[in-house]
């Protein structure tokens, strides 16, 4: 059985859990990281030397142990193995379009919104820095305008069908829209996100309270 290491409060763990649920996989999730500890033990570092979550333990097609870390890589692996031609697009152009949006989430969208999340959710009110929150909001709003434009002519990020691309960006949007910040109306982005929230695989992920 697939084992997922990591606390569900981690956005990166939520990506993997959503993906596994979307694929209908049997899996066990083990709380690790932050208050749960574990990640600095020798046993866990043997799985992920970065001492971070998530990590997975799986068995490959030959029955050999397979260990992976890095959330978007894990999502790619699970989709390539269990959903080739659907969540993992068969057409090269569509697949790399999906890959591009996954990388964009990790390298561009997440860093833009991180300060607002940390300040508003994980920092006591008396220690918050409004300038950091505002800079984060401004940077993220510009990126959401880009997403709105992308979704004007397609149902999902990589085309007309839900793919692996929608999972990381969807998790990022769940986190951003859960923050107590003004949200300009973006009809195409709203439509897309509501479609994600309605998916059975997103249960317990896109309805979580941030912590």
UniProtKB/TrEMBL annotation:
Signal peptide span: none
Top-level taxonomic group: Bacteria
One Gene Ontology molecular-function label: transferase activity
Domain (GST C-terminal) ranges: 91-211
InterPro entries: Glutathione-S-Trfase_C-like (IPR010987), Glutathione-S-Trfase_C_sf (IPR036282), Glutathione_S-Trfase (IPR040079), Glutathione_S-Trfase_N (IPR004045), GST_C (IPR004046), Thioredoxin-like_sf (IPR036249)
Domain GST N-terminal: 1-86
Pfam family, one: GST_N_2
Protein name: Glutathione S-transferase GstB
Gene: gstB_1
